[in-house]
Recover the amino acids of this structure.
């Protein structure tokens, strides 16, 4: 089964690098994922193909108009690429819930993901109210639009799909799995500028190595992201 992403954006060209390199490119070639784009400007009704206008009440910037966005979404959804229970509709905006690894795992169970990327000062509120999209933010900061957050979701979900990553166990042992950061990793040479690989990792004792990695993951999480452990406690 191929997971289909449909991205609604006025800048589809921004995605070229992400889709043509590395894991996502390989997954597309293997038909693990497919990505399509819809530009809301195609649904604008004026001769300038405008999708934004000044906000009522005044203020800086421009706001996405509801008409072209509703029309773009309705056009995509009319394709009915997957049953409702296997379809996820995501609007990328700073007001959404913060994206975490568990969200990516959840999204990876879908067969169809529709991503709505905004620009300017945001969306007319009726887009939030009327389309029924779940709203997601990739962090507590503001970007110029939702394209980069959409790329984050495409990359983050794709690498969790069977066959997308060379080692299928790799996604299972990374940061944020089981609520912890990943343990430190080392490779050759064993001594680099006086910095040595911990003896336990070259001991060949797989039981000791597993215990060391668990201890280090817990310690690193406590030091760097205590919030993942409930305020730093185990």
């Amino acid at each position: 089964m191929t997971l289909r992403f449909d991205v609604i954006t006025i800048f589809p060209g921004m995605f070229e690098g992400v889709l043509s390199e590395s894991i996502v490119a390989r997954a597309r070639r293997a038909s693990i994922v497919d990505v399509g784009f819809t530009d809301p400007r195609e649904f604008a009704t004026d001769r300038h193909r405008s999708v934004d206008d000044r906000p009522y009440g005044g203020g800086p910037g421009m706001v996405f108009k509801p008409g072209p966005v509703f029309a773009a979404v309705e056009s995509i959804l009319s394709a009915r690429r997957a049953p409702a229970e296997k379809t996820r509709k995501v609007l990328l905006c700073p007001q959404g819930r913060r994206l975490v690894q568990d969200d990516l795992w959840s999204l990876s169970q879908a067969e169809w993901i529709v991503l709505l990327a905004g620009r300017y000062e945001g969306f007319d509120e009726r887009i939030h109210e009327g389309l029924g999209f779940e709203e997601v933010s990739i962090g507590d900061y503001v970007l110029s639009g939702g394209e980069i957050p959409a790329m984050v979701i495409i990359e983050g979900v794709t690498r969790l799909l069977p066959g997308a990553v060379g080692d299928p166990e790799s996604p299972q042992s990374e940061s944020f799995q089981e609520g912890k950061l990943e343990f430190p990793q080392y490779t050759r040479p064993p001594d680099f500028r006086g910095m040595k690989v911990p003896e336990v990792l070259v001991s060949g004792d797989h039981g000791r190595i597993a215990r060391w990695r668990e201890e280090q993951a817990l310690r690193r999480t406590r030091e760097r992201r205590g919030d993942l452990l409930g305020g730093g406690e185990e």
The chain has a mean pLDDT of 94. The longest strand covers residues 87-98.
